[in-house]
Amino acid sequence: MFERNGILVSACLRRWAAASHWPHLAPMALAGAGVAVPNAAADVRRAADWLTDSPGGTGAIREIVEWLLREAGRWEEILAHFGTGARP
Question: What is the domain range of residue 19?
Answer without folding.
Answer: 3-82
